[in-house]
Amino acid sequence: MTAVRVVAGVLRDRQGRVLLTQRPPQGHLGGLWEFPGGKLEPGESRSAALARELGEELGLEAVESVPLLRLEHRYPEKLVDIEFREVLDWRGEPRGREGQPLRWADARELCALPLPDADRPLLRTLSLPPLLLVTPEPGPEPGDFLLRLRRVLDEGVGMVQLRARGLSRDLYLGLAGEVSRLCRQYGARLLLNGPPELLGQVDADGIHLPSGWLTRFPHRPVSREKLLSVACHGPEELALGARLEADLALLSPVLPTPSHPDAPALGWEGFRRLREVARMPVYALGGLRPADLARARRHGAQGLAMIRGLWPDRSGPPAGP
User: Fold this and answer.
1) CATH of the domain spanning 3-123, picked from 3.40.50.2300, 3.40.720.10, 3.10.20.30, 3.90.79.10
2) Whole-number mean pLDDT of the chain?
3) Is residue 288 packed enough to be buried (19+ CB in 10 Å), middle (13-18) or exposed (0-12)?
């Protein structure tokens, strides 16, 4: 079965709501709300197709869009290869040029509205935060570690990856329990850096797999209720992450880092090229600070993953712009 190639756009207003259009009541998926877009024409790029569709459907001029998520969805009558792209800049006010209703929906409304099955995986992507902390090694004083983590969470960081390779399993589980309670207090998500079976012992939101582990699993090793994060350094790991149906990838190093001074950096253009072929949301990692967020988004990043850029020293708050 040949896949129908489709592109759809995510447009956000100043309140963070996203734009939806309603399908005609008759026909395929009649009456459902969906992200605006349509089919690619022969030889057309996805960004060009989205710009054309937004002009035809909504009277908008799409200035810039970047990939968010690509997936395949099988309906009984056809297979759809769909890429969702975030429209970072556009000109004009959206209007239904074909008479279709429009609405702006927040996160709560999105979950309640009737959407096509192919669009629903995007809701998880839209819920991912812009900043992700990768913790440094905890050291000998867990109290100090937790105090610094609290200061990071006070700054509004929405996801934490607990990396503590120097701890024994028992010590890691004990610390993970404390970190989980702290993340729950702040409404932040927690990823455990380690084997998937850790999820049976700690109240966490998902697992992060190091790049060297991606070949260990023949299929997705965690349930759909949990997040699967993967570490990637190039196209091979991104392809492995796609095979495992990962929910997000950390792609590094974007810039040179003190911890890996000899590792070749991707640079922003290298990051963009790899992001274009990735099927899952990608966080930029390596040598970055919060002030790099806008630039990262322009190059297709879901957000920034950072260690030093977010972790506070003993004397001050987390690094800012």
Assistant:
1) 3.90.79.10
2) 93
3) buried
User: Domain boundaries in the chain?
Assistant: 3-123, 131-306
Sign for the pseudo-dihedral over CA of 69, 224, 241, 290:
positive
Cα(251)–Cα(210) distance, integer angstroms? 11
**pLDDT tens track for 67-125:** 888 888 888 878 989 999 999 999 999 999 989 999 999 988 998 999 988 898 899 99
Residue labelled with tokens 């997000």? 248
What's the rounded Cα separation, in Å, for the pair 179 and 191?
10
pLDDT in tens, 268-308: 999 999 998 898 999 999 999 999 999 999 999 999 999 99
Contacts of 206 (CB under 8 A, 6+ apart): 189, 190, 191, 192, 199, 222, 226, 227, 228, 229, 247
pTM (two decimals): 0.86
**CA 191 to CA 206: how far, in whole Å?**
5
Fold for 131-306, please state it.
TIM Barrel (3.20.20)
The 3-state secondary structure of 240-251 reads: HHHHCCCCEEEE
Same fold, 3-123 and 131-306: no
Buried-state track 216-247, b at ≥16 Cβ within 10 A, e below 16: eeeeebbeeebbbbbbbbeeebbebbbebbbb
